Amino acid sequence: MPKLNENYLNLKESYLFSEIAHRVNEYSNANPDKKIIRLGIGDVTRPLGAKVIEELHNGVDALASAETFKGYGPEQGYGFLRDAVVSYYKENGVSIEPEEVFVSDGAKSDTGNITDLFAKDNVILIPDPVYPVYVDTNIMNGRNITYMNANAENHFLPMPDKNIHADIIYICSPNNPTGAAYNHEQLKEWVDYALENNALILYDSAYECFITDETLPRSIFAIEGAKNCAIEFCSLSKTAGFTGTRCGYTIIPKALKFDAANGEQMSLNAMWNRRQTTKFNGVSYIVQKGAAAVFSKEGMAECKENIKYYQENAKIIAKELESKNIRYFGGVNSPYIWFECPNGMDSWEFFDYLLNNAQVVGTPGAGFGENGKNFFRLTSFGNRENTIEAMERIDKLL
Ligand SMILES: *Cc1c(COP(=O)(O)O)cnc(C)c1O
Question: Are 232 and 220 contacting, i.e. CB atoms less than 8 angstroms apart?
Fold first, then answer.
């Protein structure tokens, strides 16, 4: 009999999105004439830009003739895409090298797979509430997690506690689900704390392109010292609508080295390279062609148009909450609006209330952690008409 990884028994049933689907189905079966508006899931709705589509087509055409055909590519990504990522960082004032860029099929895979590089006994800090991938992948590996409270008091931006030693720290900024984003000073505090503790920061910047406040850092590497203590995960999913197309990139500085028990220095860049070349055969050439187009002038302009569209939706949602004096977070530097459930309802009660009385679907904060249990997430990723209609319904209801 195979002995199984019984750490899986310690996973909480990921019932969030299935429970939402179940409740929505039940409601729509009982009320087939009612139009339901979904502002719950974190998926985009705008199509890919014309430049990306053009390059995807070019990628397909290249495979049609022997002269330009591509088989296995470099596991780390094609040079043209790694260079494009380097240029993108440079435009944002951050200098990285192509060998520090690892292209992948997305940030979910990388933030989960990175746990391969760490031993079991680490003190791991993860904010609560948070994107569930960080928690579940560590539980799968049998690690203990120390939670940092993110709440209204700290504006959902927990800061380091000097009395606690950590080895590995997860930070997602702008945050999913709370929409909160760290400023330069706050991130500097985290970097300083990591350097003092000889700790590693795993920084998820999947929503960096939603930052509108130009004083906010869009990369942890904008902070002095971060190259000695941080890995950054990013993705084209939200930047360019690649949720279905699949492409992301992870930056692992060459300077990032830690001592092994035998005194040898281990490079995280070299370890990840070894891990990826062993377990991963790269992203398809076609997708990488499309991904490189995102970083072209035209491609980026098209992405920004879509992001603007979502940001306008976020404003519409925020305005409605303001008019009802509901305290909310996010929505400015993030596609997510996170707010306190009105009238003392908990997040599942409010979910049912909104579904039954306004036919609007959002995401209960409880699904992201204990501290989310009285909060609710709406996304700006819907289309304009539906967003407006949803807010009109909420306006009447609340
Ligand atoms: C959407 C999202 C990602 C992107 O994941 P992909 O696998 O690249 O689609 C990463 N991190 C967070 C927090 C997200 O919400």
Answer: yes
pTM value is 0.97
Task: Determine if ligand 1 sits within 6 Å of the CB of residue 239.
Answer: no
For ligand 1, is residue 176 a contact (CB within 6 Å)?
yes
Show the tokens assigned to 212: 């509108």
Q: Report how far residue 196's alpha carbon sits from residue 191's, in angstroms, rounded to the nearest whole number.
A: 9
Provide, rounded to the nearest whole percent, the portion of the chain with pLDDT above 70.
100
Which phi and psi angles does 248 have, rounded to 5°?
Answer: -145, 180
CA distance 128 to 177: 10
Query: Of 44, 136, 173, 204, which is best to mutate to test ligand 1, by the most ligand atoms within 8 angstroms of its C-beta?
Result: 204
Q: What is the pLDDT of residues 161-203, one digit of tens each?
A: 999 999 999 999 999 999 999 999 999 999 999 999 999 999 9
Which atom of ligand 1 is closest in space to residue 172's alpha carbon?
A: 13
Q: Which two tokens stand for residue 285?
A: 């050439």
* Ligand 1: centre distance to CA 69 (Å): 31
Q: Using CA atoms, how far apart are residues 323 and 250, in angstroms rounded to an integer?
A: 40
Distances (CA, A) of 169 to 61, 131, 217, 253, 311: 44, 14, 18, 17, 29
Give yes or no for residue 15 having a pLDDT over 80.
Answer: no
Rounded to the nearest angstrom, the distance between the alpha carbon of 107 and the centre of ligand 1 is 5
pLDDT digits (tens, 9 = 90+) for 314-347: 999 999 999 999 999 999 999 999 999 999 999 9
pLDDT on residue 13:
78
Q: Across the strands, what pairs with 125?
A: 146, 169
- Site to probe by mutation for ligand 1, drawn from 126, 131, 205 as the one with most ligand atoms within 8 Å of Cβ, is 131
Per-residue three-class SS string for 221-288: HHCCCHHHCEEEEEEHHHHHCCCCCCCEEEECCCCCEEECCCCCEEEHHHHHHHHHHHHCCCCCHHHH
Single out the residue of 391, 366, 387, 386 nearest to residue 177, CA to CA.
366
How many A from CA of 130 to the centre of ligand 1? Answer: 12
**Mean of all residue pLDDT scores within the chain:** 97
Average pLDDT over residues 283-291: 98
Identify the band that residue 99 occupies on the pLDDT scale cut at 50, 70 and 90: very high
